Fold ATP-binding cassette domain-containing protein.
Amino acid sequence: MSAAPVIELTGVVTRFGDNLVHDGIDMAIAPGEVVALVGGSGSGKTTLLRHIIGLTRPAAGEVRLFGESLLSASAGAVRALQRRFGMLFQQGALFSAFNVAENIGFPLRESGVASEAEIRDLVALKLAMVELEPAHALLMPAELSGGMIKRVALARALALEPELLLLDEPTAGLDPDRSAAFVALIRSLQRRLGLTVVLVTHDVDTLAALATRVAVLGERRILSYAPLEDTLKVDHPFIQRFFHGEHGRWALARSNAGD
Ligand SMILES: Nc1ncnc2c1ncn2[C@@H]1O[C@H](COP(=O)(O)OP(=O)(O)OP(=O)(O)O)[C@@H](O)[C@H]1O
């Protein structure tokens, strides 16, 4: 594993007032990895994603993205870095006043990299990529199902052809069939596009299907950072509950059966 890390967190400390959320997070993510971040509610998973993309500043420590420090990079360098990742927010975060095509085209218009004709073509391409129909382009977010919202948000996250994709609870709120279909789509896109992926999830099915490594957040630090089969052996109450509780056992049995 000699490739330079896509993401490198060193000694990250996060504090909101008196609430110490992270107390020394170290983690490196190599190109092409799919890392699942798990942890109890409030353990700071979403906040860690926000640090990675520069939306929140840690109180101490360093966050490097593609080898550059987000905290000390110039505004131009930050803009260049922002084009290299896409983020799927928890509820999709679509603009409710824009239709599907306008939502997907938004990053392209914002960055000024494409003409209107190119944007139309790229939007059509991204719609197909997330397995939506051309006719869906004119729908408004309020007219979409939960699964469609996730697909449109994913198409928007991929609009600028990023190398890194961050997914916050990608399957939350989807029924088991839609969830499995969305996971299959993410997996096929990850392989086809060679993406590095970081995902926050509570769902063992999602994690078992996608993750090359699992990072477990707890007690303000990374309790374990290893492939799933090694994570399962870690003797920690949260890890044992999460993976060996009823739902976890089912999910792992299904994934071992080659589902
Ligand atoms: N902007 C903020 N201001 C104050 N406190 C915050 C802020 N963002 C997060 N927190 C606090 O930081 C802690 C971690 O929040 P975060 O949303 O990162 O947790 P999480 O692990 O993603 O939780 P969940 O699984 O419930 O979504 C929580 O205690 C939360 O209340």
The longest strand covers residues 19-29. The mean pLDDT is 90. Residues 16, 19, 21, 39, 41-47 surround adenosine-5'-triphosphate (CB under 6 Å).
